[in-house]
Design brief:
single chain, eight-stranded mixed β-sheet, seven-stranded mixed β-sheet, 29% helix
Amino acid sequence: MKAYVLFSSSNGNCTYIKNGKEEILIDVGLSAKKISDALIKLGTNLSNITSIFITHEHIDHIKALNVICRHYRIPIYIPAKSLDFVATSMQWTEELLVENSGGAVREFDGLKITAFDTPHDSLGSVCFRIEAEDTTLGYATDIGHLTSDVKKSLTGCESVVIESNYDPYMLKNGTYPYATKQRILGDRGHLSNGECAAFLPELYKNGTRNFVLAHLSQNNNKPHIALAESRGALGANGICVCDTFGKADARLCAAMPDSIVEII
């Protein structure tokens, strides 16, 4: 398996996974042009994508969906409640949508993708456990808190992409309206740097050796702040990390809003 975060932030998210003949996107929250350009940098293109998995229906996860579906007949796997919204608001998607709520298991050639429900302020929301013959990847963003389902999806995965969305001080003292701040802070909002960091040592004890922090807010977070908090939590448990493979006990890096970051 090879996997890359193409884009990750509150302004747009997209991840690319290749395993054998399967080429998959998780979320398409930027323009189709930007996604296409990123794929070309990796030596592929949208015509090679065999399926698209959507975590939920917020615009930073589905922005390019209608345009892509207009030009390519790619199956779209999406939570049931999000499916209805997309079908009625994006005319080119309807015939391509496949219900993919928590508990759904999709098996392709050498690849198994299991969806788990996540607590988020959307109509429907899921995260994924992606299993191949050589490795397992957990992928969870837009999670208001760490439920048993979210933990189950990630525990035992060699590589984990996990949300580290906001720094509480920056959020509380920032320019967002009060109601928006409360939504982000709530149990169906986003995961803070501290909440993410506190869970990483548990993941390490269960076999994770590759951590990618994702969906960092461009208004309420900074990569160095998120990384420092996670590095500190792991270090307090005697776990040494660096940002490259094989140089320490584990790798720790942050996905970026506009540059490709290798996951596996």
